[in-house]
Design goal:
The protein is of the alpha/beta class. It contains 12 helices and 21 strands.
């Protein structure tokens, strides 16, 4: 199996040690499952790797956009993780979960004035500023409050991670950050240092998502450290922090490689230490922002088959009771997923089909070229693996469909963390 929390017993698919067919019967489908023990395991792997290779001041930050709901922030708090947030909504959710927002880093390329006010009002520790207009707005709000706001600048190092074009964020022409190559990174650094109510504490970059490349983070680190050394030489500014963003890839299908986080972090650390030695500078406090690599394989989505359509000489369709409303990633990126017949794991998979959703949209596809048993039919359960990231967080009510619940699995028990939406919820804001 693609992940060690997936097993088979008596022809039934088990996830986190629990019978998926019974969970589907108990909670209905579509159903998001989240393996809480796997999430905690991944947090501890990152924290141990950071402490071992970067030292005690380094901190992994959970990237909230991967999956944001109250329980996830409670887990991050209990595991001693920092967080990054990209909206007032994520800030509010973390606040409702009791998370200490002094350990939160506020991203996004277009924070509104209200976002900035809300973040400062609720004690968000750090802003990660994308552009000069934002620095001006943060300075103005901090001045109004009589405070000095800590801030990092997001830079683009000009690294191409060779990932999906839509999720590559480190190239010079990215919509995010200020490019080092064009001189704009230096300009915004000088501008920010001149602001009386902003404390520039470091630099941030993010090269992209679902990165498997062997040296992507190492190359980005070298570019960023050389820029930091230049800022020290020209302006006497020694940045205490360097945030290398997130983006480590996870296994969606069997052909995806497995990344050992401890090893990868160690490789990045070795390059950082060597580069700092070459540049005669102290090693800064290192942050990274894992999101997908913490929660993706902790998730699985269960669906019930409705119809099976066979078009002789063309293709076959297996339609499920969810779709792009609860997982839009195939429609957006053509993303790969592993789909399994949860209640028929002991049957030969000799039927090629497209697993498609129920939306009135031809692009409502979960996965093409899926092998299922030829007996697959109405009432069977289909499991889609590795859905813990960018499924619930990107879900919608298209076609006026209700979003599924999130059920957490831990120690052989299960509980609801996010309830299933009702028809009443769909009309709650209608007037």
């Amino acid at each position: 199996m693609i992940c060690d929390n997936i097993t088979i017993e008596n022809g039934i698919l088990y996830f986190a040690g629990q019978d998926t067919t019974r969970l589907a019967e108990t909670y209905g489908t579509p159903l998001y499952l989240m393996d809480e023990d796997k999430i905690r395991e991944k947090c501890r792997v990152y924290k141990h790797a950071f402490e071992t290779h970067f030292g005690p001041s380094a901190q992994p930050l959970y990237a909230s956009k991967a999956n944001s709901f109250k329980r996830i922030y409670e887990i991050m708090k209990e595991e001693g993780m920092g967080i990054d947030v990209v909206s007032s909504g994520e800030i509010y959710t973390a606040l409702r979960a009791g998370f200490d927002l002094s350990h939160a880093y506020f991203h996004s390329n277009n924070k509104t004035d209200e976002d900035i006010r809300y973040a400062m009002e609720n004690g968000v520790g750090y802003f990660v500023a994308d552009n000069a207009e934002e620095v001006k707005a943060v300075e103005a709000e901090a001045a109004r409050r009589g405070i000095c706001q800590k801030l990092l600048l997001r830079l683009t190092p000009g690294i191409d991670p060779h990932t999906y074009e839509a999720i590559a964020t480190g190239k010079v022409d990215s919509k995010f950050g200020s490019a080092i190559e064009t001189g704009q990174a230096e300009e915004i650094t000088v501008f920010t240092l001149a602001q009386p109510h902003v404390e520039l504490v470091g630099f941030h970059c993010h090269v992209g998502s679902q990165v498997f490349g062997e040296d992507i983070f190492e190359r980005a680190a070298v570019v960023m450290l050389e820029f930091m050394a230049k800022m020290k030489e020209k302006y006497g500014f020694s940045a205490p922090m360097l945030d290398l963003g997130g983006g480590y890839g996870v296994r969606y299908v069997a052909r995806d490689p497995y990344l050992d986080i401890e090893t990868k972090v160690g490789q990045v650390a070795a390059v950082i230490r060597g580069t700092c030695e070459r540049l005669h500078m102290a090693v800064p406090e290192i942050h990274m922002e894992p999101g997908r690599s913490i929660v993706a394989d902790a998730g699985m989505t269960l669906y019930t088959v409705g119809t099976v359509k066979k078009i002789p000489g063309y293709k076959n369709y297996v339609s499920i009771d969810g779709g792009m409303t609860d997982n839009p990633r195939f429609a957006l990126y053509g993303s790969d997923y592993t789909c399994l017949p949860a209640n028929k794991m002991d049957e030969a998979r000799d039927f090629t089909c497209s697993v498609v959703g129920r939306c009135c949209e031809s692009g409502d596809i979960i996965q093409e070229h899926v092998m299922m048993p030829s007996s697959i039919g109405r009432g069977d359960i289909v499991a889609v693996c590795t859905t813990g990231a960018y499924n619930y967080s990107m879900a919608s009510n298209y076609n006026r469909l209700c979003r599924p619940p999130i059920v957490m699995l831990s120690g052989g028990k299960h509980y609801v963390a996010v309830r299933r939406e009702s028809f009443e919820d769909l009309c709650r804001n209608d007037v």
